[in-house]
Design a protein that fits this description.
The chain starts with a strand and ends with a helix. The chain is α/β, with parallel strands linked by helices and 365 residues long. The chain is built from 13 helices and 8 strands. The radius of gyration is 22 Å and the shape is globular. Strands 1-8-7-2-3-5-4-6 form an 8-stranded mixed sheet. The chain has helices at 11-16, 47-64, 77-89, 141-144, 185-195, 211-218, 230-241, 258-271, 275-278, 282-296, 302-314, 338-352, 357-364, and strands at 5-8, 23-28, 65-75, 93-106, 114-123, 161-162, 201-204, 222-227. The structure holds S-adenosylmethionine.
Length: 365
């Protein structure tokens, strides 16, 4: 197994040919067996066959994991229960059953729309594992809302429902464009920071668009990726060629490294308080500065964080927080409502054509 390498091949075969215990962290996002169209894999096999295959690749990952290694698996609803049981059968220790709740889920017509993916966080050993808690913290409601003096000055840890990572939509700048299931880089950053250290080996046996390897490389870890598709593997290599190890980067003459800006934006998403409310709150800004310093290894102060937030706001560079949309009287009290009224008519017509009211209202949104 060579480090900083993307392999094209079958994950089980490759993993079983590599030495035992050389990997610190595995992140696996396998095909979910839901009929998704991939370049080289048929995502629609009998359920029993899929579970048997899952057991084989999970065992192969466990084999290459170090004794104190961590193993994350993303999976959909249909096989989440099977993966949990397979984890137990393979002697893995479940630390969290994380729900990644995302916006822009697909709208359903006759059931509740699905807006989550499961992420299992297992460790090989029940007690020995890496968990860099100080790099994960952000201001709690005690800092942002109640101004409670008992608040932990280091901030709080994320809980097991992750709602601060929007899915990578077609319009997103980070979209690599060659793979339909690209995971958000920020989500992988959290996992890589939590469960590995600089220099550690991070493996993704279903690397797809290469997100895990990108996060690992930016954070100064060694990556190993596998994909059965030659096309995805080649594209991933090209994507990685544009990525640098930013783990040692430091701000210079007030210029922040891109990684630090990304981390500040992630802290903003995690804090979930708009800038107008955040800027006067020195205590919350202090937690953000402390956590950013832990995440980056650079020494940031409240004044630095404030200045960078202001710069980002001026250039419209701050991420949008959920539901924080300026109200423009367009659809409700309409002055330019012709388009909207046409849309309503179309929906009403569909409704009379037999579609369910719920599905149509969702489409309107
Ligand atoms: C859900 S995607 C992974 C997406 C990835 N997490 C990302 O952020 O882009 C699953 C990937 O597994 C690959 N795959 C399917 N069977 C495989 C196998 N036996 N060995 C290696 N890769 C495989 C597919 O080609 C596909 O790219």
């Amino acid at each position: 197994m060579d480090h900083n390498t993307i392999y094209c091949g079958d994950a089980i075969q490759l993993l079983n040919s590599w030495p035992i215990g050389g990997v610190d962290l595995v992140f696996a996002d396998p095909p979910f067996n839901i009929g998704y169209v991939y370049d080289k894999y048929k995502d629609d096999v009998p359920n029993g066959e899929y579970v048997k295959w899952s057991r084989e690749w999970m065992a192969a990952c466990r084999r290459v994991l170090k004794r104190d290694g961590s193993f994350y698996i993303a999976i959909g609803d249909d096989f989440a229960a099977d993966i949990r049981i397979l984890g137990r059968q393979l002697g893995l220790h479940l630390r969290n059953w994380i729900i990644w709740h995302y916006t822009f889920g697909q709208n359903a017509r006759a059931k509740f729309s699905r807006a989550h993916t499961h992420i299992f966080y297992f460790t090989k050993d029940a007690r020995r594992f890496t968990f860099n808690d100080r790099q994960l913290r952000f201001p709690s409601a005690r800092h942002t809302e109640y101004q409670d003096l008992r608040a932990n000055p280091l901030g709080r840890l994320p809980n097991d429902v992750w709602d601060e990572f929007p899915r990578v939509c077609g319009t997103f700048k980070e979209r690599a464009g060659f793979h339909g299931c690209q995971m958000p880089e920020a989500l992988l950053m959290r996992i890589v920071q939590a469960s590995s250290n600089p220099g550690d080996v991070v493996l993704d046996p279903f690397v797809g668009s290469g997100t895990t390897a990108v996060a690992a490389k930016r954070l100064g870890r060694r990556y190993v990726g596998i994909d059965i598709s030659q096309t995805y593997a080649e594209h991933t290599k090209q994507r990685l060629a544009t990525i640098h190890d930013e783990s040692g980067a430091q701000p210079r003459d007030g210029e922040w490294p891109a990684l630090h800006v990304d981390m500040l934006m992630q802290l903003y998403r995690e804090t979930k308080v708009t800038l107008a409310n955040l800027l006067p709150n020195e205590v919350a800004l202090g937690v953000i500065a402390a956590s950013l310093s832990e995440r980056t290894g650079a020494g940031y102060e409240v004044a630095d964080v404030k200045a960078q937030f202001e710069r980002l706001a001026q250039s419209n560079g701050l991420p949008k927080l959920p539901n924080d949309t300026e109200f423009v009287a367009r659809n409700h009290v309409t002055t330019e409502g012709k388009r909207y009224r046409r849309q309503v008519k179309r929906v009403q017509k569909r409704r009379t054509d037999g579609e369910t009211a719920a599905g149509n209202i969702l489409r309107l949104g």
